[in-house]
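Quick question: what would this complex look like in 3D?
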Amino acid sequence: MKKVFIAGAGMTKFGELWEQDLRSLMVAAAADALESSRLGIDEIDAIYVANMGGSSFAGQDHLGSLLATELGHYVPAYRIEAACASGGLAVNTAWHALSAGLYRNVLVVGAEKMSDVSGGDVTKGLARAADDEYEAYFGATFPSLYAMMARAYMHEHNADRSDLAAVSVKNHNHGSLNPKAQFPREITQEDVLNAAMVSDPLGLLDCSPVSDGAAAVVLSTKVTSVRIAASQVSTGSIRLHDRPSLTSIDATKRAAAAAYKQAGISVPDISLAEVHDCFSIAELIALEDLGFAKPGDASKLIKDGTVYRDGTVPVNTSGGLKACGHPVGATGVKQIVELYEQITGAAGKRQLKKDISFGLAHNVGGSGGTAVVTIVEHV
Amino acid sequence: MKKVFIAGAGMTKFGELWEQDLRSLMVAAAADALESSRLGIDEIDAIYVANMGGSSFAGQDHLGSLLATELGHYVPAYRIEAACASGGLAVNTAWHALSAGLYRNVLVVGAEKMSDVSGGDVTKGLARAADDEYEAYFGATFPSLYAMMARAYMHEHNADRSDLAAVSVKNHNHGSLNPKAQFPREITQEDVLNAAMVSDPLGLLDCSPVSDGAAAVVLSTKVTSVRIAASQVSTGSIRLHDRPSLTSIDATKRAAAAAYKQAGISVPDISLAEVHDCFSIAELIALEDLGFAKPGDASKLIKDGTVYRDGTVPVNTSGGLKACGHPVGATGVKQIVELYEQITGAAGKRQLKKDISFGLAHNVGGSGGTAVVTIVEHV
């Protein structure tokens, strides 16, 4: 098996990008990553596109071929989908082909264009990430699924809404330094607690936004300073009600255990993480499932500063899904972009001052139906 | 790189299956392939789902996780999409991971449920396989894109509608022996020429139907009698009007050349083929692009019996997309199922009497935006 490295990374701004469509977003991120990699398009052996809602939100499938067409580069092209975990899964799939030595350099582009359809249609499209017949059909949209997880968490761990709000406050603090973030500004705990209620106990500022955007990485078997030390996927029940716990995502636990084993490291070796904060509750659960905190203790890591940018394990320095935005197919790739930029000193105003040996990306599909954990190593 | 074998294959009936939904189709095909492989579900290391229109036709994405849930087997699960080439591409993607030695046995399920939405919505959903903004938006649906190819072919090669009709007559002849075919009955050239016109020169019986169905294979690094000798993908312009020729699909030519090279064989070594006859014209073009006939000569192979089931290179013994049916995500997997069943003597009434050394499957996405060529070897 060949070792796999990151040769370049790039992304568009995330936000409501009225001047851009799905194809222009894909092309822009691809060009940015290619420029960063200093590879020519002719050196790219295959294209992987991560996207969930091309059909639901943009009336377009077959995005591998579409991107190959726009780039004028007719190599094998793949579209990989696992709802909001599409990005992480595409990186994993590309990593397989590179590991096998079948391709030398590949371009992975995650993209989503969500703002061209109505809010109702976005909610309906996103519900297809859960079990449509058993959940969405009965009104359980994504905010309500995560609200049930939040309610259970608050009950089980004697937590309150301020524990949830702390996640959003931190991620907006981080995102305020990211010019590509959809909401590059700070918010207060009061803002979160007073925001309009979406699905009790989750208010508007507990929820990641509807976003347009794309992110891309060039993966290569040629040695660079950033290696993919582990790439692991697991699944769990797509239906929340069939899950063994409402306050833990078993797919994350399995993927994380496999990833730590593959990288030959343990939790304390991780000095930077991007985790899937689609809702505030999701980051608390992620920090616990990934082993950073014991069940019920995740919010302590926020309160004591551990996961802030000057802490020992900064989490979501990009701003996370909450402040940076969540174009669903792009998110898992954007997480890798953030790790790459922080490790290579390309993170601009949000550059961390410390050396990072291992960074972790955690990407979830649906309410936990898929989880992908990627560990990158500074070599 | 590990060698990859087919350990088992199965499929549902194709047709308008009013009693079945997308999930029950996937599960039925998976169970059929697992039974054929004599492997237990616990021996499956990953799941690959090929599907195009989960979102458009069935209101469900995240099908990898959904199938893992229905099987109660929470391994890595992938959904691969390249329009009607999703099935071939999923086999290719699974083959990458097996080649790398990352998984030992994987389940690949192709599925589509198309009959639960209106005909107009099917046409609209399918148009997302082409360039929605540059083609479908201006009324160029799939029958009309292929009709333009047919018109160009007839002009260039002095062919007529009977040359096209011969494809449908042959494939219904073959399909009449396949109990899983959507239309297991013969038709005459008169039937084809007198059928309602869909998009001139393509009549109703020049077109593959709207279908429900699923097909599955178990791929393994454990030696069996059927090896995947080559799996190659290429892309071409997703837009017909940007293609170098209207009478040839360059993606097919590139994928075929790479596949013959990878298998170390040439065209005469192929003794059985399943090719992508989404429209009658598509099979003529495929036979030429794959090297079985010179440009303009494909229909001679039908007239002289070469590609009939008692000829030297039977083509579409399953009945092809035309008679067996075309649940788009399932088609590329079904082609591999047919090759496997013919090679292992499991093809029932349609079993060929000869030994098959090499079989070829040719799967196209859109009007030629993606092509996948798989060569299987009887070892």
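Answer marked as accepted. Residues 5-118+211-220 of chain B form a domain with the Peroxisomal Thiolase; Chain A, domain 1 fold (CATH 3.40.47.10).
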